[in-house]
Amino acid sequence: MSTALLQFTAAAATDRGRKRPTNEDAFGFSVEDGVYLVCDGMGGAAAGEIASSIAVDELLRLLIASAPDGKTPEPMPARAEQAIAVANEAIYSRSQRNYKLSGMGTTMVGLQVEERRVWVMNVGDSRCYRLQNRMLQQITQDHSLVEEQVRLGRMTRLDAQRSPLRNVITRALGTQSRVTPDIFDLAAEEGDLFLLCSDGLTRELSDPVIESLLVVDQPLEVLCTRLVDAAKKAGGHDNITCILVRASE
């Protein structure tokens, strides 16, 4: 395993899809600070857009501010959990102050890199994948009703894809006063390609199709466009957002 420092590059794309009148997804990233985020909002009126925007803005601010600066920092999982708790409270308190925003929330998937270490964090069913050695692996686990049934052996993967309850998520930022994220600690390798995406992509494209679109040697901007266009052609029933992050020496 190489010990050379990795350089990261990134690109993103978002589209409202073919069925939704607005785009309630939000994304943000800072290559310099090693923070990448995708959020998929939910709620009536413009509430979903507000929730996802608050989450991205707060998490970017907090995760960048908590990055190591030469002092002894808190461990990354603790910093991520604290940032997510603050963002959750910001969305929840906003919804409590305005009845029109009641019940709003957002999913979240994020990536933070420090040298060769990568932390993936998620709440809800927005996902992170890693393409390594031309093979795609899902890193996150969906916080959804059907995914829990699959993990318990009560539903097959095919049944879950067809279920009318597949949109029901069991965790989201802002819908409750507290939320528990999943956090994964990975060692990045040269050539790794990370995909962060909302479920508007994964509901339309199977993992093998996503893999086939990512193994092509193209600039990240082109790969993002290919993913979004393919999801739209497959139906585009929801907003579609993706960020690609590539590691190189």
What do you see in this structure?
This protein has 249 residues and is α+β, with helices and mostly antiparallel strands. It has one domain (7-140, 171-248): PPM-type phosphatase domain (Phosphatase 2c, domain 1, 4-Layer Sandwich), CATH 3.60.40. It contains seven helices and ten strands. It has helices at residues 47-65, 76-97, 145-151, 157-162, 199-202, 207-214, 220-233; strands at residues 7-15, 25-30, 35-42, 105-114, 117-123, 127-132, 135-138, 182-187, 193-197, 240-248. The strands form two sheets. The chain has a five-stranded antiparallel beta sheet. A hairpin with a 2-residue loop joins β6 (127-132) and β7. The chain is globular. The two termini are 12 Å apart. The model has no long low-confidence stretch (mean pLDDT 92).
Instruction: Tell me the fraction of residues in β-strands, as a range.
Output: 25-35%
Low-confidence blocks of residues: none
How many strands appear in the DSSP assignment? 10
Helix content: 25-40%
CATH architecture verdict: 4-Layer Sandwich
Q: Provide the CATH topology.
A: Phosphatase 2c, domain 1
How large is the radius of gyration? 17 Å
The average pLDDT value, as a whole number, equals 92
Descriptive terms for the model:
alpha+beta; 5-stranded antiparallel β-sheet; Phosphatase 2c, domain 1; single chain; 249 residues
Concise structural overview:
The protein has 249 residues and is of the alpha+beta class. Helices cover 32% and strands 28% of the residues.
Secondary structure topology:
Blueprint (H helix, E strand, L loop, with lengths): L6 E9 L9 E6 L4 E8 L4 H19 L10 H22 L7 E10 L2 E7 L3 E6 L2 E4 L6 H7 L5 H6 L19 E6 L5 E5 L1 H4 L4 H8 L5 H14 L6 E9 L1
Antiparallel strand pairs: 1-10, 2-3, 3-4, 4-5, 5-8, 6-7, 6-9, 9-10
